[in-house]
Write a structure and sequence with these properties.
Layout lengths: L1 E5 L11 E2 L11 E6 L2 E8 L14 E6 L5 E4 L8 E4 L2 E4 L1 E2 L8 E5 L2 E6 L3 E2 L9 E2 L2 E5 L7 E3 L20 E4 L4 E5 L1 E2 L2 E2 L2 E4 H7 L13 E2 L40 E6 L2 E6 L10 E5 L2 E6 L3 E3 L5 E3 L2 E9 L2 E4 L4 E2 L10 E6 L8 E6 L9 E5 L1 E2 L2 E2 L5 E4 L11 E9 L8 E6 L4 E5 L4 E11 L2 E2 L6 E3 L3 E3 L1 E11 L3 E8 L12 E3 L6 E8 L4 E10 L12 E9 L13 E2 L6 E8 L13 E6 L3 E2 L5 E10 L8 E7 L4 E5 L11 E6 L2 E9 L7 E9 L9 E9 L11 E8 L2 E10 L2 E4 L19 E13 L6 E5 L3 E2 L2 E2 L2 E8 L25 H6 L10 E7 L7 E8 L4 E11 L10 H24 L12 H5 L3 H6 L1
Parallel strand pairs: 40-50, 41-51, 53-61, 63-71
Antiparallel strand pairs: 1-39, 3-4, 4-5, 5-6, 7-8, 9-12, 10-11, 11-14, 12-13, 14-15, 16-17, 17-20, 18-19, 20-21, 22-23, 24-25, 25-28, 26-27, 28-29, 28-30, 31-32, 32-33, 33-36, 34-35, 37-38, 38-39, 40-44, 42-43, 44-48, 45-47, 45-49, 46-48, 49-51, 52-54, 54-59, 55-58, 55-60, 56-59, 57-58, 60-61, ...
């Protein structure tokens, strides 16, 4: 709930704060609260505003704004322009109100209101050309009806002795005993002046510039060595004092550091700054006798080694009379250059927990540097480390940051609903915002579940349609403190990260895993409520191990009507809106109900082959050797991309029949097989899985499949991963067959004539063909294989065969170390005679070669010619193709040269003569006639003669 209040003059500014008196950059609080006829109004300063004062430029103004109405009206504290005084008969200007920042300080207390102009100038000595920055204030004690001027620093003397640089009204406040503190700055040394409102009104006379206020007290000035020390530069810290004594500086110069003087009772305490230039005590708030000090330019070295201006807020807790102790946990700004701690405002006890809360401004915080205000709740040790609420500015300015949070004012109940509100000024946007505090509900809630452990076998209740089931009592107790609003309570038996829980327990009343109920409670009323839930049947859920979580969530009904002030309540930030208890199912794990399995796994299989469908069967043995069951145990098989699951092995009756399904985890496919819920201790099961591996590549030597048993147990829930390696092999069935054409060869052939001049292949001799056929019936492709044919070219040192050519058909390439057709004979065209082989075979899936012809010509002897055909692959194999050669001796007339015949006759005659000579020498021709006489020769019969 916001109330936007804007100045009637654009650019006038609603409040202005500044860091130091000369540079106009000091942050403080310039708002007040005033009561007119029981209507709460807000006083907002506009130090750069214009009024009806004649010849005054940006003299400043104060506006009166009703918190429940729009628009503001200006308060005429001072309607006069600059005043003049006759000096030596010359009308001389003695005061300068232009740019005096009237309204930079505004305070109210009951019907008393004080507004000051700390940059008001007064011509102290009339013969000097310059004026002194003395400052002035205007006081009203009758509800803004009449006004009196109070300028305690306006004296007759110029310079420091005459308080010429006093800037009276730099910071002001009313004390509990209705004393008025005016904090002037003298040579950057703070001086405190105090007077009662009655004494100021009594001493006022409008025609006099210099007035003496009876009973006015002030701190004395110190030695000149403390000039520019900024000692005490800050806000007035209020206390119940009747006497103000000088600040004890322990005769020690601060050399530019900042300190704060705390006036309480009759003693002044000095607290030193912790960092030079941090503007320690640029704003200071005292709340319930404790002290909060802002240092908006505090710097801290970041991770990159550079100093970052974060701002810091120091908290001093009063541990005893005049004993303030610095808290260990002070607040550090969350964003660099946000000026965290530029403004502070006590908020009172927002959540009514007995500790005051605090608002801290960051006028340059937020994403767009529009400004932030943080709400910190108090506790016994100071303020919380983190804010409970963050207020952000809603405006942006093109020329100047909106500076939302530049000024804060709190601890005042503007709407009178019993809770203090907060005013936030946005100097750069000329706006102020009222934040109304909503009623805060404090609640104490408890949740009890009974029993916390139960045996699902013990059925203790009967539900229609569900049989006897286990039930759980839930006792919920709510202790809520707020005025008559509806609270919604949600009971839930499902934990968000447990998807199985929704199938385990249901509420008896709603038959659902959750239920929502609304209760109307008054302040201080207590509520006790009981509900029952039941555990579903054993076969209806799997998760028996994880606890059953019962949770309670409650919130205020957003549809409830608003209170009499138009506000809806909110829950205190410390209220626990979510409670959770749990119950467990009794397990077979001993008295401690903790199961510790010991899962073992072994896998067995065979090798697979390239190019095959690879109908693979793997057998595994899963065991639980632990002391307790493994719940929701499953076999997880990480499938490679080359493999597909095809089913459970059913060939062996001893194998367990499993239920398996696919799951995906990231980019890995898993086959998950249920091994039991639970897989009890001592379990040992054998099962088989069937796969196909159709997408193997010839670059694989092995293929890995990962196996693991997983369970939902907390302890020892998994087995070791078994990376089973399948050996990838190449297997091919190769058929080699060959034939010789002709298979028998007669040499020499009939009518064969030897040609002395060789021109054609038939001149060499008859043709001999060896035809070889190779068939690869797979499944693998044979790679890097060599088919080798060996034939004898010579026998017993004589030429036998003359190789002419090799004719191939199919995916084969042949080469020979022996030159084919070395004589370059004319080769006739050979027609392949292997068509019947191709027609006879089906088209092969993979083959090394079809067939080829080896043509060899020529033979001189009757030898048995054979060719060894070998397939050289892992040792290879061989086959011989035989050709039988038979010698032929047919009749034939051969021409013999004459010289051979003559030589043969002569040799024959020579041999005959030699024979006759030998016979002669042996007496062959001198032997006696065995028949005697001639007569006896005559009597020989012709037959005998002839036989002889």
């Amino acid at each position: 709930y916001l109330l936007q209040i804007q100045s009637s003059q654009p650019g006038a500014g609603l409040q202005f704060c500044f860091w130091c008196p000369l540079t106009a950059f000091w942050s403080c609080l310039w708002t007040g609260v005033f009561y007119i006829d029981n209507d709460i109004s807000i006083l907002i300063g506009a130090p750069k505003g214009n009024t009806t004062q004649p010849n005054i430029i940006e003299g400043g103004a104060v506006y009166l704004c009703s918190w429940n109405q729009t628009g503001c009206s200006i308060i005429n504290f001072d309607q006069h322009g600059n005043r003049y005084f006759y000096i030596n008969d010359i009308n001389t200007q003695v005061e300068f109100k232009s740019h005096q920042w009237f309204g930079a300080t505004v305070r109210s207390n009951g019907n008393s209101t004080l507004a000051c102009a700390p940059r008001y100038y007064w011509r102290t000595e009339h013969d000097t050309p310059f004026a002194d920055l003395t400052g002035t204030c205007y006081l009203s004690v009758d509800g803004l009806k009449t006004f009196v001027e109070y300028a305690p620093c306006r004296t007759e003397r110029h310079g420091p002795a005459g308080q010429g640089y006093c800037q009276g009204g730099f910071s002001v406040d009313f004390t509990k005993v209705r004393h008025l503190f005016v904090e002037p700055s003298l040579y950057l040394l703070c001086q405190l002046i105090s007077a009662t409102t009655e004494e100021i009104v009594k001493a006022y006379y409008p025609s006099y510039f210099l007035l003496a206020v009876s009973g006015q007290i002030q701190t004395r000035q110190v030695q000149g060595s403390y000039d520019d020390s900024y000692l005490g530069e800050g806000s007035v810290v209020r206390g119940a004092t009747n006497k103000i004594n000088p600040v004890d500086k322990n005769e020690r110069k601060r050399k530019g550091s900042l300190s704060v003087g705390v006036i309480t009772g009759s003693l002044a305490l000095v607290y030193d700054a912790f960092q030079m230039g941090s503007y320690f005590v640029s704003v200071i708030i005292a709340s319930l006798d404790d002290l909060v000090v802002g240092a908006p330019m505090f710097m801290l070295r970041g991770s990159n080694g550079r100093l970052e201006e974060l701002g810091k807020v120091y908290i001093y807790l009063q541990k005893g009379p005049l004993l303030l102790e610095l808290c260990k946990s002070n607040l550090l700004g969350p964003q660099a250059f946000s000026r965290f701690g530029s403004s502070l405002a006590p908020l009172g006890d927002l959540n009514q927990d007995g500790f005051n809360d605090m608002a801290i401004g960051c006028p340059y915080g937020g994403e767009d540097n529009q400004g932030l205000v943080y709400i910190f709740n108090g506790h016994v040790d100071g303020l919380m480390d983190t804010p409970t609420q963050s207020l952000s500015g809603q405006w942006a300015s093109s020329t100047f940051p909106a500076s939302f949070g530049f000024a804060l004012r709190g601890n005042t109940d503007l709407d009178q609903n019993g809770y203090p509100d907060l005013m936030v000024g946005a100097f750069g946007a000329d706006k102020a915002v009222l934040y109304r505090a909503r009623p805060i509900v404090s609640a104490v809630t408890s949740l009890t579940v009974k029993p916390t452990m139960f045996n699902q076998e013990e059925k203790t209740c009967l539900l229609i349609g569900h049989g006897s089931l286990v039930y759980i009592n839930i006792y919920t107790i709510y202790i809520l403190h707020f005025p008559g609003f509806v609270v919604e309570v949600q009971l839930d038996s499902v934990k968000q990260n447990q998807r199985e829980s929704i199938r385990r327990t249901l509420f008896v009343e709603s038959q659902q895993p959750s239920m929502v109920k609304s209760f109307q409670l008054s302040k201080g009323e207590r509520l006790c409520h009981e509900e029952n839930i039941y555990l579903r049947a054993d076969e209806e859920f799997r998760d028996k191990l994880s606890p059953i979580y019962i949770s309670l969530n409650f919130s205020l009904d957003p549809q409830a009507s608003l209170d009499q002030y138009g506000l809806s309540p909110i829950l205190d930030y410390q209220t626990k809106q979510h409670l959770q208890q749990k119950a467990q199912i009794q397990l077979d794990c001993g008295e401690d109900n903790i199961c510790v399995p010991d899962l073992k796994l072994a896998v067995y299989g065979t090798e697979i082959y390239l190019g095959d469908e690879n109908y693979l069967s793997l057998t595994f043995n899963a065991r639980n050797e632990g002391e307790g069951g493994a719940y929701e145990a499953g076999l997880y098989v990480a499938l490679p991309a080359e493999a597909d699951y095809s089913g459970i092995a059913r060939s062996n009756a001893s194998l367990t029949q499993l239920t398996c399904s696919y799951e995906a985890e990231n980019l890995t496919r898993y086959l998950v097989c249920d091994l039991g819920n639970p897989m009890k201790s001592g379990t040992s099961l054998w099962a088989g899985l069937r796969f196909t591996v159709p997408r193997l590549k010839d670059t694989y030597k092995t293929l890995q499949i990962g196996f693991q048993i997983r369970s939902k147990n907390v302890n020892n829930s998994e087995s070791e991963v078994v990376q089973f390696e399948l050996k990838v092999a190449a297997m091919a069935t190769v058929i080699m067959q060959g034939v010789s054409r002709p298979d028998k060869f007669i040499f020499p052939p009939p009518n064969w004539k030897v040609h002395h001049s060789l021109g054609q292949e038939q001149d060499v001799g008859p043709e001999l063909q060896h035809v070889h056929e190779l068939v690869n019936n797979g499944p693998s492709v044979l790679s890097h294989s060599t088919f080798e044919v060996k034939c004898p070219l010579k026998a017993h040192g004589q030429e036998l065969l003359y190789p002419v050519e090799v004719v191939t058909q199919g995916p084969i390439s042949c080469s020979s170390k022996t030159t084919l057709n070395a004589l370059k004979l004319k080769v006739k065209t050979h027609k392949s005679n292997t068509e019947h082989h191709i027609q006879r075979r089906e088209v092969d899936r993979d083959h090394l070669a079809d067939h080829f012809n080896l043509t060899c010509i020529g033979a001189v002897e009757c030898w048995q010619v054979h060719c060894d055909v070998g397939l050289l692959e892992k040792g290879g194999r061989s086959k011989k193709v035989l050709t039988t050669l038979m010698w032929n001796k047919p009749d034939s007339h051969l021409w013999v040269p004459v010289w051979i015949i003559i030589l043969a006759v002569l040799v024959g005659l020579l041999l005959l003569a030699l024979l006759i000579y030998l016979l002669y020498k042996l007496g062959f021709f001198k032997r006696s006639d065995p028949y005697g006489t001639t007569m006896e020769k005559a009597e020989l019969k012709p037959q005998a003669s002839s036989e002889a």
